[in-house]
């Protein structure tokens, strides 16, 4: 079994990260009744004998769980969020050495996060990453969690991404990026996002973009449904999808429901690496099968079920309905409708009691409705994990490499251009050492060429592409 | 003489385990002592404490499958794998042929070849090596190809048979066509013969003949093991004078692979029925052989759904070349066939239907193209079974489809960067495509 290390950067990154650790613990405790430190746990947690001195706390393999430590590095340039974690119920999970903090924050300025803090903390960050990697028997993947709109997550986060590529070139980098909504209250979020996009395009293996607006819509829908329930009915609140109840931390805070969805995304994508199944899908297989061209590595995630167990009147969705839902607009985690754009590849990661025959039947059923690029008509990658998420009998995560991300990027480019044309707020950036005008122009041109690549593929969508002429052999 | 099996990747290891299971059950079932002993000697090593240890090497780049196999067989008590006959790593090959061939293969070459050498030294006399793998993933295909290369270098005078499992046409892995093309083109140079099972075909057998409702990979693997076992278990050849053939792989090759351009072999085995209907079924040799012959010429892999309209073309008088236009559509021309009959009254079976020159390509005389083995010992609970190992156009269409899809993908250079980063260049791809187009062309012109 392999291990993964989570690197959470900035306020959003750390808040989502915390939800992830909380839900992961809950999931494992649900499955692992005997308290044995097994392979599944070791993929994200270390088992440590904390009685020994802090400097020499060593890992114990096998046997009973003593003290679990998360394989994580937490980075934030202001202390609020990380301090909360250290005072909260998850504090035992983190060693003080895993935390890298500063005091004043990045002021929503990508340049400060990337250049100023990037160079100041470079050594410390590399050190912590190395330590985390050394504790791993076989490190397969780094998960980076951050947001795009702010300063730390966006700027320092992408600096960390570059470091990961330099120091650990063979380890897969999967980035979960939270994109700002159009009505974001951070004025400079378009600058920060576009500057970060360039780094993601160049240095990440896979990016799972998530839009705040979609999360808000989903959470509102769920709340609406559970509040409109008939009187006297029982509402199941233990669904792990939006509710952190039953987890370690008690009260729910404003962004909690949204963060829970993203945390579930991470849980599901790693489920096949943690638990057994009849058709395992390793993390390195995700990049291999879903990324046909190096820069087109933005995978639209969609999760089902989202509403089911929080509902009252809606009967349990049948299995097939779950598959249909995964391709509907409401379940995508960015605001896009993949059915009307072109699929380059698609992965289905199923959890729970689902058979190969069910999977194949649903693929056959859905294929005619989904436009796939001509050279990848059977572009499906599937995985079956036998352990369902807590509170559900089965679940499905679909990752689609689809040209609909182009629309998200185009909107982002528009918002950027509105500010850039007026040179608004640019002096805050250009004052930072290491930052120049060129960074802006390079970033926007990288984004434009990315959009162009998607457009070219889109153009082939409704055209009937002839098969490429085969080689002729002299007979 | 003994066969050493090398099981590579998840598929190779899972099918391999079912194969040894079938063979050990078959050998234990029968009252015929000579058959049992010959079969045991061929596939197992008997230790001092009378335990049967499979002559097999298990290789995989991730540990789960191998540890399950070893545990399962140790528990069964009938036979087991050698304690030090396996090798696994922590992280798989990520469905990437280049990762398997360029990185994992060379990295672990020494250790793997050491294990193989030890297994070979346990044999009094080596009949040949059989490598079992799939072509869709990364380890079986990539590492498997590299290991076959090492085997060829280390044992230049031994026979090497590759058993390949081809994936479902509708896809299990997105880059399966690339992995398949790279594997086949390389193996064509390294291997003596390539015996192929297709998941689609075996799946149909499970669904329609054996009536399995929810088909799992285990069911598929059992059918493949049954078919493969029926080829490799002891049999009497034409000139073996009542003694079981000592060199099954060598004889398979000399009967079927007479030209280096034609190495693809397929297997048909009838009857195949669900275990519940076996008690109620009665088979005769004329019935079985009639079906099998039509399955061959109409290119059907099962005894259901055979197209009886397809007929062998009439022969041209001597001296007139048989041109393409004389060939009937849908007719499957063979280069060579090997018929194996196992069971009761086998000497009464009338096999002349398989010897007719119209079944074969004209440039090989029919009596050289056809061979037969037989044994009165029934195989795996079937009172009578007829097996046809065929070097014919059967695999032409699936191969052509596979190359076509891979070529389409290659034309847009999709996923190529995943391969080039490990050392496989576009040139290498083009070379592979060229060799396979050559194979397709050769088989088309049979």
TrEMBL record, chain A:
Q: Where is the Tubulin/FtsZ GTPase domain?
A: 48-277
**Listed SUPFAM superfamilies:** Tubulin C-terminal domain-like, Tubulin nucleotide-binding domain-like
UniProt entry tagged with the keyword Oxidoreductase? no
- Gene Ontology cellular-component annotations: microtubule
Known SMART domains for this protein? Tubulin, Tubulin_C
Subcellular location, in the record's words?
A: Cytoplasm, Cytoskeleton
Source organism superkingdom: Eukaryota
State the Gene3D superfamilies in the record: Helix hairpin bin, Tubulin/FtsZ, GTPase domain
**Keywords of this entry:** Cytoplasm, Cytoskeleton, GTP-binding, Microtubule, Nucleotide-binding
InterPro entries, A to Z: Epsilon_tubulin, Tub_FtsZ_C, Tubulin, Tubulin/FtsZ_2-layer-sand-dom, Tubulin/FtsZ_GTPase_sf, Tubulin_C, Tubulin_CS, Tubulin_FtsZ_GTPase
Q: Does the keyword GTP-binding apply?
A: yes
Principal localization reads cytoplasm
GO biological process annotation, one example: microtubule-based process
MF terms per GO, please?
Answer: GTP binding
Tubulin/FtsZ 2-layer sandwich domain ranges (all copies): 279-414
Family the UniProt entry places it in: Belongs to the tubulin family.
Q: Which PANTHER family match?
A: TUBULIN
Recorded protein name is: Tubulin epsilon chain
Source species: Salvelinus namaycush
Q: Which gene encodes it?
A: tube1
TrEMBL record, chain B:
Sorted keywords for this record are: Cell projection, Cilium biogenesis/degradation, Cytoplasm, Cytoskeleton, GTP-binding, Microtubule, Nucleotide-binding, Nucleus
Where is it located?
Cell projection, Cilium; Cytoplasm, Cytoskeleton, Microtubule organizing center, Centrosome, Centriole; Nucleus
Report the principal subcellular site: other
> What residue stretches are annotated with the Tubulin/FtsZ GTPase domain?
40-240
**Could you state one GO biological process linked to this protein?**
cell projection organization
List where the protein spans the membrane: none
InterPro entries with a match to the protein in the record:
Delta_tubulin (IPR002967), Tub_FtsZ_C (IPR008280), Tubulin (IPR000217), Tubulin/FtsZ_GTPase_sf (IPR036525), Tubulin_C (IPR023123), Tubulin_CS (IPR017975), Tubulin_FtsZ_GTPase (IPR003008)
Q: What does this protein do?
A: Acts as a positive regulator of hedgehog signaling and regulates ciliary function.
**PANTHER family from the entry?**
TUBULIN
Per the similarity annotation, which family is this?
Answer: Belongs to the tubulin family.
Report what the protein is called.
Answer: Tubulin delta chain
Organism this protein belongs to: Salmo trutta (Brown trout)
């Amino acid at each position: 079994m392999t291990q993964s290390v989570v690197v959470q950067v900035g306020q959003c990154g750390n808040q989502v990260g915390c939800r992830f650790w909380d839900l992961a613990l809950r999931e494992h405790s649900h499955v692992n009744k005997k308290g044995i430190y097994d392979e599944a746990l070791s993929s994200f947690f270390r088992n440590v004998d904390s009685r020994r001195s802090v400097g020499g706390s060593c890992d114990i393999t096998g046997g009973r769980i003593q003290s679990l430590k998360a394989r994580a590095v937490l980075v934030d340039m202001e202390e609020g969020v990380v301090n909360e974690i250290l005072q909260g119920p998850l504090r035992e999970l983190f060693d003080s050495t895993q935390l890298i903090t500063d005091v004043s924050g990045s002021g929503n300025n990508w340049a400060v996060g990337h250049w100023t803090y990037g160079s100041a903390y470079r050594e410390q960050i590399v050190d912590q990453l190395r330590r985390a990697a050394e504790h791993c028997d076989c490190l397969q993947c780094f998960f980076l969690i951050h947001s795009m709109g702010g300063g730390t997550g966006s700027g320092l986060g992408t600096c960390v991404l570059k470091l990961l590529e330099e120091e650990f070139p063979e380890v897969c980098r999967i980035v979960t990026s939270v994109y700002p909504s159009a009505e974001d209250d951070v004025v400079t979020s378009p600058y920060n996002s576009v500057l970060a996009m360039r780094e993601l395009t160049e240095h990440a293996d896979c990016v799972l973009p998530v839009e705040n607006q979609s999360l808000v819509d989903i959470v509102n829908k769920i709340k609406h449904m559970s509040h409109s329930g008939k009187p006297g009915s029982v509402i199941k609140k233990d669904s792990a999808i939006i509710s952190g109840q039953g987890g370690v931390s008690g009260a729910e805070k404003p962004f909690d429901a949204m963060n829970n969805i993203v945390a579930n995304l991470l849980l599901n994508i790693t489920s096949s690496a943690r638990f057994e199944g009849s058709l395992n899908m390793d993390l390195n297989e995700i990049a291999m099968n879903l990324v046909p061209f190096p820069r087109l590595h933005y995978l639209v995630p969609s999760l089902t079920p989202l509403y089911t167990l929080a509902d009252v009147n809606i009967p349990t969705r049948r299995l097939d309905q779950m598959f249909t839902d995964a391709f509907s607009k409401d379940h995508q985690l960015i605001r896009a409708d993949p059915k009307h754009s072109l699929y380059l590849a698609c992965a289905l990661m199923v959890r729970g009691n689902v058979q190969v025959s069910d999977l194949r039947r649903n693929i056959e059923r859905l294929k005619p409705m989904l436009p796939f690029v001509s050279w990848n008509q059977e572009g499906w990658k599937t995985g079956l994990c036998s352990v369902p998420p807590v509170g559900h009998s089965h679940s499905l995560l679909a990752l689609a490499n689809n040209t609909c991300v182009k629309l998200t990027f185009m909107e982002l480019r528009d918002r950027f251009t509105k500010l850039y044309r007026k040179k608004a707020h640019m002096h805050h950036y250009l004052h930072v050492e290491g930052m120049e005008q060129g960074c802006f122009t390079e970033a926007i041109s990288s984004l434009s060429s990315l959009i162009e690549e998607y457009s070219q593929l889109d153009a082939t969508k409704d055209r009937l592409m002839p098969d490429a002429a085969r080689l002729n052999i002299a007979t | 003489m003994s066969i050493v099996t090398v099981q590579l990747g998840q598929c190779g290891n899972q099918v391999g385990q079912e194969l040894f299971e079938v063979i050990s059950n078959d050998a234990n079932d029968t009252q015929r002592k000579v058959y049992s002993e010959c079969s045991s000697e061929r596939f197992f090593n008997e230790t001092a404490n009378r335990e049967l240890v499979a002559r097999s090497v298990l290789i995989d780049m991730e540990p789960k499958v191998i540890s399950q196999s070893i545990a399962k067989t140790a528990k069964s008590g009938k036979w087991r794998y050698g304690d030090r006959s396996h090798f696994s790593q922590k992280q798989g090959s990520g469905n990437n042929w280049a990762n398997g061939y360029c990185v994992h293969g060379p990295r672990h070459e020494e250790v793997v070849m050491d294990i193989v050498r030890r297994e070979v030294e346990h044999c009094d006399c080596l009949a040949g090596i059989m490598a079992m793998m799939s072509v869709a993933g990364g380890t079986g295909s990539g590492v498997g190809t590299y290991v076959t290369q090492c085997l060829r270098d280390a044992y230049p005078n031994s026979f090497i048979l590759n058993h390949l499992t081809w994936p479902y046409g509708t896809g299990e892995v997105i880059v399966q066509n690339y992995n398949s093309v790279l594997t086949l083109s390389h193996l064509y140079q390294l291997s003596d013969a390539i015996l192929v099972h297709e998941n689609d075909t075996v799946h149909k057998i499970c669904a329609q003949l054996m009536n399995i409702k929810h088909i799992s990979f285990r069911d598929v693997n059992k059918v493949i093991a049954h078919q493969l076992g029926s080829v490799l278990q002891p049999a009497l050849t034409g000139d073996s004078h009542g003694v079981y053939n000592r060199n099954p792989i060598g004889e398979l090759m000399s009967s079927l692979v007479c030209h280096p351009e034609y190495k693809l072999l397929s297997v048909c085995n009838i009857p195949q029925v669900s275990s519940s209907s076996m008690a109620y079924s009665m088979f005769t040799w004329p019935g079985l052989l009639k079906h099998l012959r039509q399955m061959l010429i109409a290119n059907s892999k099962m005894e259901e759904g055979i197209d009886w309209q397809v007929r062998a073309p009439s022969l041209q008088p001597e001296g007139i070349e048989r041109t393409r236009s004389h060939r009937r559509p849908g007719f499957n021309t063979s280069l060579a066939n090997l018929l194996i009959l196992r069971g009761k009254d086998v000497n009464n079976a009338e096999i002349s239907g398989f010897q007719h020159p119209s079944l074969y390509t004209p440039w090989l005389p029919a009596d050289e193209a056809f061979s037969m083995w037989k044994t009165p010992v029934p195989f795996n609970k079937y009172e009578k079974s007829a097996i046809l190992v065929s070097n014919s156009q059967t695999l032409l269409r699936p191969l052509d489809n596979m190359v076509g899809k891979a070529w389409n993908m290659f034309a847009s250079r999709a996923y190529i960067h995943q391969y080039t980063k490990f050392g496989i260049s576009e040139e290498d791809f083009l070379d592979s495509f060229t060799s396979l187009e050559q194979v397709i062309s050769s088989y088309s012109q049979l």
